TrEMBL record:
It comes from uncultured Thiotrichaceae bacterium. It is an enzyme of class 2 (transferase). The lineage of its organism: Bacteria, Pseudomonadati, Pseudomonadota, Gammaproteobacteria, Thiotrichales. PANTHER family: THIAZOLE SYNTHASE (PTHR34266:SF2). Homotetramer. Forms heterodimers with either ThiH or ThiS. GO terms for cellular component: cytoplasm. It catalyses: [ThiS sulfur-carrier protein]-C-terminal-Gly-aminoethanethioate + 2-iminoacetate + 1-deoxy-D-xylulose 5-phosphate = [ThiS sulfur-carrier protein]-C-terminal Gly-Gly + 2-[(2R,5Z)-2-carboxy-4-methylthiazol-5(2H)-ylidene]ethyl phosphate + 2 H2O + H(+). Residues 9-255 form the Thiazole synthase ThiG domain. Pathway: Cofactor biosynthesis; thiamine diphosphate biosynthesis. This is Thiazole synthase.
Length: 261
């Protein structure tokens, strides 16, 4: 009998372990098709860059990705200080009628988009005290990841490589260390470039992956979204199954003891 294996975030269960972004597509129709192909249930929206109702005369992404169908994850992309990030989360909560699940990211560098961990810790403390359920983007430092968990973040999201780089998992040992010491979901955020990267992350034991550029910047975003969905599923299954031990030399597939020749 196959055991239930769902992703649980802030007390809510999700069948899909692939979370997707809504930016960088050519139009909202491509956004919709890619999201559906990915099988995503949680979609992240950059409040400072995407209209969810704050600009009534412009196209609204919620018209193609309705809150009745998806769990919205407003994020603070483009924020570089605590005040800006906190204000953005509060705006999202107001626009979405009290919705309190947010993705926090406080950036420290415009070139690499690496997180400012000091500012991130400060913003996380404020938001958790303000009753937000905070999923937080951070670097792959196990100590910082643990501090964010202890503050009360509902999920920690270490980068695999710089945002939008597509370089894949650059430091699997740090990611593994974070996973092994966590009591909240760990989701790789940033750096995945193709399906094999997603599978590797899941095989390490990540609870899920959030991606945008890897799908949106592909030559065929819809097909890549489907590939990522399958890679996340395969990687999770491989992790649960437990891989064979690595060996320096091959061994016979059948034992030879007791044979007649």
């Amino acid at each position: 009998m196959i055991q239930k294996d769902t992703l649980v975030i802030a007390g809510e269960e999700y069948q899909s372990r692939l979370l997707t972004g809504t930016g960088k597509y050519k139009d909202f129709e491509e956004t919709r098709l890619a999201t559906e192909a990915a099988g995503a249930e949680i979609i992240t929206i950059a409040i400072r860059r995407t209209n969810i109702g704050q600009n009534p005369d412009e196209p609204n992404v919620l018209d193609v990705l309705p809150p009745e169908k998806y769990t919205l994850l407003p994020n603070t992309a483009g924020c570089y200080d605590v005040e800006e990030a906190v204000r953005t989360c509060r705006l999202a909560r107001e626009l979405l009628d009290g919705h309190n699940l947010v993705k926090l990211e406080v950036l420290g560098d415009e070139k690499t988009l690496f997180p400012d961990t000091i500012q991130t810790l400060k913003a996380a403390e404020i938001l958790v005290k303000d009753n937000f359920n905070v999923m937080v983007y951070t670097n792959d430092d196990p100590l910082i990841a643990k501090q964010l968990e202890e503050i009360g973040c509902v999920a920690v999201m270490p980068l695999a490589a710089p945002i939008g780089s597509g370089l894949g998992i650059r430091n699997p040992y740090n990611i593994l260390e974070i996973i092994e010491n966590a009591n909240v979901p760990i989701l790789v955020d940033a750096g995945v470039g193709t399906a094999s990267d997603a599978a590797v992350a899941m095989e390490l034991g990540c609870d899920g992956i959030l991606m945008n550029t890897a799908i949106a910047a592909a030559q065929d975003p819809i097909l890549m979204a489907s590939a990522m969905k399958n890679a996340v599923i395969a990687g999770r299954q491989a992790f649960k199954a437990g891989r064979m031990p690595r060996k320096r030399y091959a061994s016979a597939s059948s034992p030879i003891d007791g044979t007649f020749f």
